[in-house]
Write a structure and sequence with these properties.
It is a single chain. This protein has about 350 residues and is α/β, with parallel strands linked by helices. Helix content is about 20%, strand content about 30%. The protein has eight helices and 29 strands. The protein has helices at about 5-15, 30-35, 65-75, 75-80, 100-110, 165-170, 175-185, 205-215, and strands spanning about 20, 50, 85-90, 95, 115-120, 130-135, 140-145, 155-160, 190-195, 200, 240, 245-250, 250-255, 260, 260-265, 265-270, 275, 280, 285, 290, 295-300, 300, 305-310, 315, 325-330, 335, 340, 345, 350. Strands 11-14-17-20-23-26-29 form a seven-stranded parallel beta sheet, with no helix packed on it. The two termini are about 30 Å apart.
Length: about 350
């Protein structure tokens, strides 16, 4: 799955079928994945899904400078809508929710803004916005990624706005949702909380992405639930071929793979080839990557269409070497017998011919 599949599936399962994706930088892969929205039943005459990139509106075109600025650049869409509420979501989170339960809580409150919150695990304060919630469920304070905090709850980056309130709050000076919209509203006593108690993970960093992915292998991570399907674009690949001489343990393997070597505690995307004598351990291998005979990949994240030559080694522990997660970018070609030390990062499309 792509990360955006979780947001889109949650929306569709909640009956939300008018969705705007505010894309930035290089959205080509995102556009190819979403297409017309057919996998989510969003290819429709009324509503549907739209990918919005930064536009100039008669001025010089600029990247979205922040979350609130992204909304302001698309304020005409919000203003032309006949919806009463606007749901604003982050695209780098993994969770399952029926947003109608949040709307129900919103309707009980006189507040124009509701923020989804949950109890934070100790030590996670620096990753999240920590909130102080009173007995009536109103948010009294929000600290964005503090070093330490005595607050027990965290904001999940899931916001429900009254449309008119949002239109009145957005202007050319609003840049960030937290600092320019939420904090002033909190000071005015206008932000309520919605307590979320299901699985949720922010995977906006390499470490959290890797950890959340590895949790899938032992069943403690995101698990699909009957009645709340997770939709994605079909791969179009044939079934995976697993050789009798291979050894696969505790792994997830997608369609279209050819597995002749050993795969242990790893996630293998579509169209990956693992040749005889090759080994993949505690790694995430993206689609259409080839791991040639005798090569090894250990505790690494390998992007799309990478070639790892015969006898090559990526992330293999060495005495006195690094211990971090090894990253190999898209379409990198690693020469036969070359060695990439643990914790290294190779930029996309780099021909790698020596050890680092």
């Amino acid at each position: 799955y792509r990360i955006i599949d979780f947001c889109l599936s949650n929306c569709v399962n909640s009956g939300i079928t008018t969705i705007y994706v505010l894309a930035q930088y290089n959205p080509r892969s995102l556009i190819e994945h979403i297409g017309m929205g057919k996998p989510w039943d969003l290819d429709r005459k009324t509503g549907g899904i739209y990918i919005m990139q930064p536009s100039h509106h008669g001025r010089v075109a600029e990247w979205y400078g922040g979350t609130a600025e992204a909304l302001f650049q698309n304020i005409e869409i919000i203003g032309d809508s006949d919806a009463d509420l606007v749901l604003v979501l982050s695209g780098d989170q993994v969770y399952r929710i029926d947003y109608r339960s949040m709307v129900k809580e919103f309707s009980k409150s006189s507040s124009p803004v509701t923020v989804a919150c949950r109890e934070a695990l100790p030590g996670h304060e620096q990753r999240l916005g920590m909130v102080d919630i009173d007995d009536a469920g109103m948010i009294r304070d929000l600290l964005e990624k503090p070093e330490v905090s005595s607050y027990r709850h965290a904001s999940l980056g899931i916001y429900l706005f009254d449309r008119e309130f949002l239109l009145d709050s957005l202007n050319r000076d609003t840049v960030d949702i937290v600092f320019d919209l939420l904090k002033p509203a909190i000071r005015r006593g206008e932000v309520s909380s919605f307590m979320f108690r299901d699985y949720w993970e922010d995977i906006g960093s390499i470490d959290t992405y890797y950890r959340a992915s590895m949790k899938l292998l032992d069943g403690t991570g995101f698990i699909t639930e009957k009645g709340y399907p997770l939709f994605t674009r079909e791969s179009g690949f044939p079934p995976t071929r697993i050789s009798g001489g291979s050894d696969i343990r505790g792994s997830i393997i997608a369609d279209g793979c050819s597995i002749y070597g050993n795969v242990k505690e790893s996630i293998i995307f579509t169209g990956v080839t693992v040749e005889r004598g090759a080994e993949v351990s505690k790694s995430i291998i993206f689609q259409s990557t080839s791991i040639r005979e005798g090569a090894g990949v250990y505790r690494s994240i390998i992007d799309k269409e990478v070639q790892i030559g015969e006898g090559g080694s990526v992330g293999k522990p060495v005495k006195g070497g690094g211990t971090g997660i090894t990253l190999v970018g898209k379409r990198v070609s690693i020469a036969p017998s070359a060695s990439v030390k643990p914790g290294s990062m190779i930029e996309p499309k780099t021909p790698f011919e020596r050890g680092i």
